[in-house]
Structures are given as C-alpha cells and as structure tokens.
Amino acid sequence: MKYDPIKSSLGSFFNKSPYSRILFYKLLDLLLLRTWHVKKAVRSWKKHHSGEKQILDAGSGFGQYSYYLAGHVRNAKITAVDVKEDQIRDCNAFFDRIGLNNASFMEADLTKYVEENTFDFILSVDVMEHIEEDVLVFKNFHKSLKDGGMVLISTPSDQGGSDVHHHDHDEAYNNDGSKSFIDEHVRDGYNINEIQEKLKTAGFSKTESRYQYGAPGKISWRLSMKYPILILNRSKAFAPLLFIYYLIVFPFCLVLNIVDVNGKHKTGTGLIVKAWK
Question: Which pLDDT score is estimated for 7?
C-alpha cells in the first residue's frame, strides 16, 4: 500500500481551481499535526526577525508551506525547490494564477543544491527521511545559510515515526505486523541525538530538538490520516464516506492536536529540529 499516490490523487482532485487548492491547504493545516508544530516554530522565529528575508522551502511538495510563508512572513522572498518536475510546474502555475509573486519554484536535488550565504531561514518538512545522503544535505543547508541563519526540520523520530519496520529490503510493516502504507522512507526515523550530531558534523554551531506526536498526537494521526488513507487504498469508492467519518472524528482530533502542540513530550513519533549557523 502506498502513501504518495493517495497524496497525489488528493492534490489532483483539489487542483481544479485556485479556490479548491487553497481549501486543500486549509484542510491540510487543520488535519496535519506537523503543520501545527511547524507553524508554531515559524512564528517563534518570525518574532525575532524583521526586514527582508530570504527563505528556502527545501522539498516544497504541494507548496503548502511556501503558500503559508509567502502570506505570513512580511517582506519574505521564498525560493522553493523539489525533485518532482510536475509539482514544480504546478506550483509555479498556481502561484501565478493567485498573484502571489514573492515565491518561485524550481526543480533541484537537495544533495546538490547550494546557494552560498543566501538564506536567512530554511524549512524542510517531511523530507530528510527520504534522503540517504542526509549529512551532505545538511552541509548544503549550512553553506546556503547566512551567518546566524536557522534551519527548521520536521521529520519522523525513531520512536515509530514512520509507523514502519523493515523485515527485508522490499517490504515495510507496521508495529502490529501488517504491511505499512508508508514505504517511501529510507530510514524509519531519527534518534533525537543522532540528527543533532549530524547537523553539528555539517557545521552547525547550535542545535535544539524536541518531540512532536506524543501520545495525543499519535492517536490524532491514526484517526485523521492513517485510517482514512488505509480505507482509500482499498478502494476510492469509499471517498464519499470520509466526509461523514471526519464529521465524527475531527472534533476529537482537534482537541488532541491542541494538547500535543502545547505539551512537552518525553518521547514522540516526530521531531522538530532547529539548527543555527
């Protein structure tokens, strides 16, 4: 079972007009707990940084975070990169249509992409778990940041962050032994100390890391994301029933997300990591 094809199908469905695309972003903002944590960290960074800022969205995907940054960080110029040419083309067309001209998208491989001493802030959400040569990417981030610049990374932890364990090189399984719907990751998640050490190896002078998706977040993720995706993997015919499903479960997920984003967790299936040059 695959995760990326479901995401692509949903993206195509909501891409019929600029309004439905923006609605898609809003729904992701509500449902994806990682977005809550990322936005909280971005707001914290923004409080202490004014004036014109150069921002890199490293692994921009559907453009959800570039859209947020372009609209909420004053005087920001967003450079968004991704390896998927179709998504880059799609995002450029969408941003042109809505007249949001302070963000531009380009195809790039993060293991090769460097813009020395250019960016004040780099955001990388759900990217590093897909890249084998992670230290090389961290070194590129470090080179691309201005002195005093910060990188913010959201990624699964090794506490079950990918909800997957590999029994061999070809198959991925959930903790309960069933086959996982996430099999695009090259690692099952980062140890909280490991990723900070790798960032320091890459040259960063200071790092901070904390868990996200504690006990409340894990329940919310299963209710709001995992189970609906498993259902859609069985058959797209179940899609109309998801509206009723979300009417029932969303209020509980909302409360769980609020608790998770405002709490401190001794462990969790996700990590929010900051590093400064």
Answer: 57
SS3 sequence, 205-247?
CEEEEEEECCHHHHHHHHHHHHHHHHHHHHCHHHHHHHHHHHH
Range of the domain at 53: 4-276
| Average pLDDT per consecutive 10 residues, the chain (277 residues; last block may be shorter) | 54 74 88 94 90 93 94 91 93 93 95 97 95 96 97 93 46 42 72 97 96 95 87 79 91 96 94 97
Cα–Cα–Cα angle for 224, 225, 228, rounded to 5 degrees: 90
Number of independent structural domains in the chain: 1
Cα 91 to Cα 86: distance, rounded to the nearest angstrom: 9
CATH at residue 80: 3.40.50.150
Query: Whole-model pTM?
Result: 0.87
3-state secondary structure at position 104: strand
| Best CA proximity match to 11, nearest among 51, 48, 50, 60 | 60
The Cα 189–Cα 269 span in angstroms is 8
